[in-house]
Specification:
The protein is mainly α. The protein has a domain of 85 residues. Helix content is 69%, strand content 0%. The mean pLDDT is 74.
Length: 150
């Protein structure tokens, strides 16, 4: 019985340098648009995420400064101010009645506690948002890698 396939599977076809250059050129021509597409898709994933993380960093810095300012206000209100002239007698107005209803206004400690709770809640929300975006971008990246692998 005669075989229809006269070429052996281990036989290599001879290519000229020009043919190899032409094949290589076609491969690069096909790869370049895919690389551009891949870069654009990665940029669409990376840059919004990077911008959001930078925003989170800035917001965290702002919250830390706000916390420090409140803390400074709190500590300055509780420090005893020294008299300008230590030799002078204490104020003669010792028995002044406060004209502001201090019983209905929250004290500095309560304000500080409220601000800290608010900051904590806000940071938790921002953290949850960031982790949600990380998961979405990771899934998108995996899908993109799978698409480019096909």
């Amino acid at each position: 019985m005669a075989s229809l396939d006269v070429k052996k599977s281990t036989e290599h076809l001879p290519y000229t340098a020009a043919e190899v250059d032409q094949i290589t050129s076609k491969l690069y021509t096909a790869i370049d648009p895919m690389e551009d597409r891949f870069e654009k898709r990665c940029d669409n994933i990376y840059f919004p995420f990077d911008v959001r993380l930078s925003g989170l960093d800035s917001h965290l810095e702002w919250l830390q400064k706000e916390f420090k300012a409140i803390h400074r206000q709190f500590t300055s209100k509780h420090q005893i101010s020294a008299s300008i002239d230590r030799k002078a007698p204490a104020s003669t107005n010792k028995h002044l009645v406060a004209s502001i209803d201090t019983t209905s206004t929250p004290d500095a400690e309560q304000l500080l506690q409220n601000k800290m709770e608010s900051m904590h809640e806000e940071l938790n929300e921002l953290s949850a948002y960031a982790y949600d975006k990380i998961g979405w971008h990771q899934t998108a990246r995996e899908m993109l890698t799978a698409d480019l692998g096909d």
